[in-house]
Amino acid sequence: MTFKKFFAVTMAALLVTLPLVGLAQSVNVPGLLVAPFKAKYVSDNITAVSTDVGIYVRYVGSAAGAATVAVAAADADLSFVANGVADTTVNPAGAATACGATPGTLDTADTDCDTLGEVVDHINQSANWNAVVAAALRTDTSINSLDTLAATDAKGPAGLGLLKDTVVALNITNVLLPGGGRLAAGNAAQLPAGIENWQSNPQKVTPHPFNDRDTVMLYASHNDAYTGAAGPYIVYCVYENYKAGGFGSSELAIVLYQEAMAATTVTGKIDEFQTAGGLSCSAGKMLVRVSAATTLTAPTNVVTGYVKTRNP
């Protein structure tokens, strides 16, 4: 046997007997064999109208008493109260950009705050409050589009979710965050909840809140009753930019995927990406939305996937 042949046979034997270290350390995500990463499965399930959160708001001021937010039944105007009195740091008198004429109250029909993004900017103008756009886009209308809410405390770490009024908004939007972005019973210590998903510091909103992660959708389905023209079944990757002091904040919403909604009361699915490792939103917030022109009711809308850190 020549030396070359002996060497080749010996190396072949070693390759058979040595452990496949690289493969042993890999993990299997449906459709792909990838390097290990830190990942957490996430999902969001919506089974009733007016349960997706338009805005999260949290009191971060120094008032010892209750700090509440209310949404008026007639027009969805927002009232902010701390220690039993209107907090006039919100929409202060004489502000260059006013949101109605009443300090401590935001008039959601005012042209300076008739979108959810503008409402959030006005709230963040106050040093006493933080706010973020949640299962929504900054450009979504705020005019009477938030569900009625009696004065409710907003001091907790998760803040207070202001729900969208589906009758007015005419869209239902899943957001792919731990616990659907909401507080799951018994999981307070394990999952970020509400506005915590947007905060690395409890006192302020992170400028680019999802810059440290990739969100991957594996599966989504919807079943809704609706009338009028249906919007597309659409997946967004939303890049948010929150500025200190509120004004100047922005977002870039990129359409990752869309298809026609299923017929009313028929289940539609986005399952094309399961065997390809999923549909990825890198460094952004993933939203999955259905919409209709006239009525939108009886949802059973679910999204599943995982979140992995970008710099583990």
Q: Distance between termini?
A: 50 Å
- Rg measurement, Å: 24 Å
Give the domain tally.
Answer: 1
- Beta-strand residue percentage: 35-45%
Residue ranges: pLDDT <50 for 5 or more in a row? 3-27
Query: How much helicity do the residues have?
Result: 10-25%
Q: SSE string, helix = H, strand = E?
A: HHEEEEEEEEHEEEHEEEEEEEEEE
Major sheet summary line: 5 strands, antiparallel
Oligomer: single chain
pLDDT averaged residue by residue: 88
Number of strands: 21
Structural class of the helix and strand makeup?
A: mainly beta
Protein described:
It is a single chain. The protein is globular. 11% of the residues lie in helices and 37% in strands. The protein has four helices and 21 strands. It is mainly beta. The N terminus is likely disordered. The chain has one domain. The strands form six sheets. Strands 3, 13, 17, 18 and 21 form a five-stranded antiparallel beta sheet that branches. Strands 5, 6, 7, 8 and 10 form a five-stranded antiparallel beta sheet that branches. The N and C termini lie far apart (50 Å).
Keywords summarizing the entry:
5-stranded antiparallel β-sheet, globular, mainly beta, 21 strands, 11% helix, 312 residues, 37% strand, disordered N terminus
Could you provide a short overview of the structure?
This protein has 4 helices and 21 strands. It has 312 residues and is mainly β. β15 and β16 (250-260) form a beta hairpin.
